[in-house]
Amino acid sequence: MAESSLGTATARERIEARLDRLVAENRFTIAVVFPAVGAVLLLASAADLVGPPLQFNPGLILLGTLVMRLPLVAGVAPLVDRQAAVGIGALVAYAFGIELVGVTTGWPYGEFEYLVELGPMLFGQVPLGLPVFFLPLVLNSYLLCLLLLGERARNRAVRLVAVIVTVLLVDVVLDPGAVAVGFWSYSGGVFYGVPVSNYLGWVLSATVSVVVLDFSFDRARLTRRLEDCEFMLDDLVSFVVLWGSVNAVFGNWIPLLVAVALGAGLVVTDRFDVPVRSTAEG
């Protein structure tokens, strides 16, 4: 049994090392090129400048999202032990559950419907890739706050409140952009087509998700990995590039300013410019 466990651990470490190299060697492509191309395709699709198979192609949307998530996956992978795996599994179940409730009842986000299939749809109502879209937003917010707070992140109350607020700011960028390109729509909305109820719902989802993540991962190990792994927040770089661009084109100025603020947080923590700098050195 001991030899089997050792062999499994060694194989896992080899896979993690290869994934680290893959991301490190392709940082600019993953963190900048993919979201830039994605923004162009989304905007062209929304404006009917392209038709099938490129227009809102579900496979391309899901593939592009998975590629942009690679830095986060590679960064977190070595920290996923049994406790973290259980926590992630619980959040996956929660994401599907709350989204299905939301689509069918309008609670807690307000009445909304998907206008575009974002990959295969579960029960024809919710994207099967929903955890890939949702969970990284929370984890990226958590990681950014660990860097920005520094020693203050040791205080759980300060840490949790900061992350919850950051998750809400991320959604201030995401939802108006997604509504603008036609991913989904709400029944009424005072903030760029998004109702206040959506953000109240996100307070609930953000609180649940952040609390579960906080108990699932060892904060000290997560902080050390974050400090050592320079590409760990590249997924948030992609988010700023993609949805910042979309909001800019549609004139969603408040979401754009929030995206700029998130980008400033990445610059302050010496993360945003790393992909460009690494490529230039290469």
Protein traits:
single chain, mainly alpha, two-stranded antiparallel ribbon, 11 helices, 4 strands, disordered N terminus, membrane, CruF-like
Give a brief outline of the structure:
With 282 residues, this protein is mainly α.
Structure description:
This protein is mainly alpha-helical and 282 residues long. It has 11 helices and 4 strands. It has one domain (2-281). The chain has helices at residues 2-25, 27-46, 58-76, 82-105, 130-149, 156-181, 196-216, 219-228, 234-249, 253-268, 274-281, and strands at 112-114, 121-122, 126-127, 184-186. The strands form 2 sheets. A two-stranded antiparallel sheet has the order 1-4. A hairpin with a 3-residue loop joins strand 2 and strand 3 (126-127). Helix 4 (82-105) runs antiparallel to helix 7 (196-216), helix 6 crosses helix 7 and helix 6 (156-181) crosses helix 9. It starts with a helix and ends with a helix. Keywords: Membrane, Transmembrane, Transmembrane helix.
- Residue windows where pLDDT falls under 50 for at least 5 positions: 1-6, 278-282
Structural class: mainly alpha
DSSP summary: helix tally: 11
Strand content: under 5%
Helix content percent band: over 70%
Work out the oligomeric state of the chains in this entry: single chain
Counted beta strands: 4
Strand order of the largest sheet: 1-4
Keywords: Membrane, Transmembrane, Transmembrane helix
Transmembrane segments: 28-47, 59-80, 87-108, 128-149, 161-187, 199-217
Pfam family, one: Caroten_synth
Protein name: Carotene biosynthesis associated membrane protein
